[in-house]
Amino acid sequence: MSNRLAVFDCDGTLVDSQHSICTAMVRAFEGEKLAAPDRATILSVVGLSLPLAMARLLPDAEADYHDHLSESYKLAFQQLRRENAVSEPLYPGIAELIRELDADGWLLGVATGKSDRGLQLCLTHHGIHAHFVTLQTADRHPSKPHPSMLLTAMAEAGATPESTVMIGDTSFDIDMALSAGTRALGVGWGYHTPQDLMDAGAHSVAMDSAELRGHIHAPHVPSSDSRSR
Hints:
InterPro entries: HAD-like_hydrolase_sf, HAD-like_sf, HAD-SF_hydro_IA, HAD_2, HAD_sf, PGP-like_dom2. This is Haloacid dehalogenase. This protein is α/β, with parallel strands linked by helices. The protein has helices at 18-31, 39-44, 50-57, 63-82, 94-103, 116-125, 148-157, 171-180, 194-200, 209-217, and strands spanning 5-8, 107-112, 134-137, 164-168, 183-187, 204-206. Strand 2 (107-112), helix 6 (116-125) and strand 3 (134-137) form a beta-alpha-beta unit. The longest helix is centred in the N-terminal third of the chain and has 20 residues, at 63-82. The two termini are 26 Å apart. 47% of the residues are buried.
């Protein structure tokens, strides 16, 4: 019997990091003498790897410049850490949900556009790092919605698509889950709207952690929209 695996996105799902993300992005753009995108536009690309996010924000720029701007963003975020100005609070009920799932025998993972370092710092700060058995980041994988992160998480945890659920707040998370053949659960408290998630093919969208708990425990129904890449 395969292990039950619940894989969470981080930004917009476990933690509300929008203030820090937007501040770092504005600093990165202003440091390059560029007009910064507005908050809604920045949040629309959260979850993608940095170069792909920059490509969406500056579609007419060259790939080398997207890489350069990505490094500028990383430096801006690191400066926020030095200023003790990073804000990444857990969403209500998330810590309790993580502990309950772990105690109930679920294996837990994260698949995120964050860096390895950023994810480790975030989970450790909130005292939940030890609950996760597999951590997949953009440092070692193609950007979402490519299923690489989720496929690797399943391999490391000894889980199958039928025993795995992906939980996220963006259409990138939903598309990744469907590509990997897992259940795709949306959360309505993040950076894409509940309608965006349902339009992307989410099996359900939870509006709070209690509702999410019920959706995670619901039986898996194979999706006709599962895709291979």
